[in-house]
């Protein structure tokens, strides 16, 4: 390997880009039988993780996406029969979003498939290194800077 190639392969941005691309490919393959993408799985996870039915706005805020993007996700998932919008019983001016029975089943099976894709991605690492890798990524991703 030339010095330039070695330098490139040592760059964090290069490594992260290629690691993310590999994980995305594994995840896309795992989710294909369920007809959903990784981002759609994230929407389902957020909606399922709410103690009470979630509004579109609350779900968008939790995912860090704008309202228009969230509406597009919800329209797509509703079209697939995975969720439904219903009037909020406490405030009829807004809708809440709930998973359908099919959505709950798809979420369960797709999450298991995605978890297996992550295991395949982390296979080159020992269990301890995989845990450390996750922890380090979380620390870096959630770092807000010095207090």
Based on CA atoms alone, the radius of gyration comes out at 19 Å
Give the count of helical stretches.
Answer: 7
Overall pLDDT score: 91
Helix content, binned percent: 55-70%
Main sheet summary: 3 strands, antiparallel
Structural class: mainly alpha
Q: What is the strand content?
A: 5-15%
Number of strands: 3
Terminus-to-terminus distance: 42 Å
Which segments are poorly predicted (pLDDT under 50) over 5 or more consecutive residues?
none
Q: Shape, please?
A: elongated
* Strand order of the biggest β-sheet: 1-3-2
Oligomer: single chain
Instruction: Tell me the series of helices and strands, N- to C-terminal.
Output: HHHEHHEEHH
Which secondary structure elements does this structure contain, and how are they paired or packed?
Elements: H1 3-9, H2 12-31, H3 38-48, E1 54-55, H4 56-63, H5 67-79, E2 83-88, E3 91-99, H6 101-122, H7 127-141
Antiparallel strand pairs: 1-3, 2-3
């Amino acid at each position: 390997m030339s010095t330039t190639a070695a330098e490139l392969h040592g760059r964090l941005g290069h490594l992260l880009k290629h690691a993310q691309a590999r994980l995305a490919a594994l995840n896309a393959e795992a989710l294909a039988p369920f007809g959903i993408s990784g981002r759609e799985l994230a929407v389902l996870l957020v909606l399922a993780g709410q103690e009470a039915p979630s509004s579109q706005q609350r779900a968008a805020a939790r995912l860090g996406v704008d309202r228009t993007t969230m509406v597009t996700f919800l329209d797509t998932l509703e079209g697939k029969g995975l969720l439904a919008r219903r009037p909020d019983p406490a405030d009829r001016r807004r809708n809440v979003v709930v998973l359908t029975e099919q959505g709950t089943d798809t979420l369960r099976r797709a999450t298991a498939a995605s978890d297996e894709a992550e295991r395949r991605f982390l296979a080159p690492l020992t269990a301890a290194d995989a845990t450390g890798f996750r922890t380090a990524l979380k620390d870096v991703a959630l770092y807000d800077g010095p207090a």
